[in-house]
Amino acid sequence: MPQARTEERSAKEQIARQIRRNIVTSTTAAGSGHPSTSLSMVEVITQLFFGGVMRYDVKDPHNRERDRFVLSKGHGAPGLYAVLAEAGFFPVEDLATLRKLGSPLEGHPNMARLPGVEASTGSLGQGLSMGIGHALGARLDGLDYRVYVMTGDGEMEEGQVWEAIMYAGNHGIDNLTLIVDHNKYQQTAAVDEIQPLDPLDDKIKQFKWETTSIDGHSFDEVEKAFDWAVGIKGAPQAIVANTVKGKGVSLLDSEPGKWHGKPIPPEEEAKALEEIGA
Amino acid sequence: MTFGMSRITLDEGDPTRRAFGDALAEAGSDERIVVLDGDVNNSTYTMDFKDKYPERFFNVGIAESNLVGVAGGLAACGKIPVAASFSVFLLANAYDQIRMSVAFPNQNVKLVGTHAGISIGDDGPSQMGIEDVALACSLPGFTVIVPADAASTTAATHAMIERDGPTFLRCGRPKVPVVYDNGDSFEVGKANKVRDGDDVTIIANGIMVAMALDAAEGLATEGVEARVLDMHTVKPIDTAAIEQAAAETRGIVVAEEHLAWGALGAAVAMVVGEHHPTRMSFVNIGDTYATSGKPDQLLEKYGLTPDAIIDAARRVLKD
Ligand SMILES: Cc1ncc(C[n+]2csc(CCOP(=O)(O)OP(=O)(O)O)c2C)c(N)n1
Ligand SMILES: [Mg+2]
């Protein structure tokens, strides 16, 4: 299977800018959606799809041997769609149909309608379990693909996440990597005000996972973390990606508690795109 | 947003979730009331209660199972817990907790599910409560209320809190047309006859009541007089009103913003089948998940319109 690999730092940064741009324009055009949720994940998903981490073939999106990316925090769909489009799963122009009637780019990812989507999500807490299923499928079929799951930090409050963490750890499911997008905010308040999570890496470690905590906007650190994860045998790996909700658009990232689920108003769009620089 | 030639729009009137939030904040002076949230109080409008009575407000985080279990414990202490979230997350995610901590021990917990139906629009099917009424109705001892507009939601909220017993109140996201004036009578378990007629009966709840009234105007131009019953309480169902409608009109149309199986249509059909068989037809989402789209587009696409009700009435009246 061809492996997308864009190792040039400047090329990756350019792709990240493009993804940020498309997150902003698609949600502003839709008049709804979660840009700030999507902006915090950009470096991680760019590295996954363009840093040589994941094997996939956009011409054969259901290839049995493909690596899988499950976006458990499904409201980050604009980010997922932007990276899938950039990778070539569907034309970038289709991003303009986000949330519109008839479009497979629904408000939250729907695996039945869009190739590249590995789990239907939008009810928080469920993606890691789906990821374990995908990972066990590899074992059963004697394949060596890997599974990457991204959750939100608020999402970690769902009990099912911990049921899954306990199972994957106890069973040494090592073709599974969890990335927690630790952007410190959830819908109605800061995570610390609702359910303080830290030290999150230590907590997950107690369930027999290998863990690391990184700056989720540093390509250096993100790249190293995935290299590290792939090298671990006998245990699942968790990457706590410390990020900023709304990263790259000052309107959002200067007040990350205020913008959950809100698109950038049309009159602010030009400034946002200028800041992104794409 | 308007539907075809009809006068129904979703840009007037208050959303039912807003009316719930206002009524809850008002009722909050009763110190037995405690409110539980799963990180969505700015969507359910329980934030108004939170601001007024922070010491009786608990945001347990994105953890619906825990939320319902905690509500059960509070009810066991004599509190009146009002647990509110998106209806699909509350009912579907925490169903066994609802069984074990609320329904089975018959506890006085009020579940309020907002963002019900396909009329939430763009957010798409994962956020739409369209199996919620069926889930709630299947729980022994539950009262299930689906109000039509803001004024009746205000009344329903107060009524729910005043009566004892497990209750599910279903609210929507968008603005809904005004059907009632504030202070109009609202009695749990008793249908409201919002239009009289002797040819056919339309039984509806939620957003479909306004559609039914609109359809009835359309039918009147064809010389068909439709009775419209707002069956806001799905359980316990108003058997007498249904029997009377079956006896006095030539057939019954049931209209609801829900999947076909297990909700208002089923409840009315059970009464009709047992007490007074008559012709029936059903307007609902059918047996499918919806997609993303604007609320009015989705209602049109999935056949929840006055025109669909008119067609259903014609089917019932056809000899
Ligand atoms: C089971 C469930 N409960 C509630 C919601 C509503 N909801 C959508 S996003 C969100 C906050 C998520 O916060 P976090 O996981 O931190 O994601 P972020 O947007 O910060 O990346 C909530 C409560 C949901 N989608 N699913
Ligand atoms: Mg977060």
Write structural notes for this entry:
The complex is a heterodimer of chains A (278) and B (319). With 278 residues, chain A is α/β, with parallel strands linked by helices. Chain A has one domain: Rossmann fold (3-Layer(aba) Sandwich), CATH 3.40.50.970. In chain A, 40% of the residues lie in helices and 10% in strands. Chain A has a five-stranded parallel β-sheet with strand order 1-2-3-5-4, sandwiched between helices. In chain A, helix 3 (42-50) crosses helix 9. Chain A is globular. In chain A, 55% of the residues are buried. The model of chain A has no long low-confidence stretch (mean pLDDT 97). Chain B is built from 13 helices and twelve strands. Chain B has a seven-stranded mixed β-sheet, with helices on both faces. Chain B folds into two domains: 16-170, 3-Layer(aba) Sandwich (Rossmann fold); 192-317, Rossmann fold, CATH 3.40.50.920. With 319 residues, chain B is α/β, with parallel strands linked by helices. Chain B is globular and about 60 Å long. Chain B is 39% helix and 17% strand. Chain A binds chain B through residues 30-33, 74, 99-103, 105-108, 110, 120-125, 154-155, 157-159, 186-189, 194-195, and chain B through 37, 39-43, 47, 59-63, 65-66, 88-89, 92-93, 121-127, 291-294, 297-298, 301. Bound molecules: thiamine diphosphate and magnesium ion. Thiamine diphosphate sits between chains A (37, 40, 73, 75, 122-125, 152-155, 181, 183, 185-187, 245, 260) and B (38-40, 62, 64, 89, 93). Thiamine diphosphate (TPP) sits between chains A (37, 40, 73, 75, 122-125, 152-155, 181, 183, 185-187, 245, 260) and B (38-40, 62, 64, 89, 93).
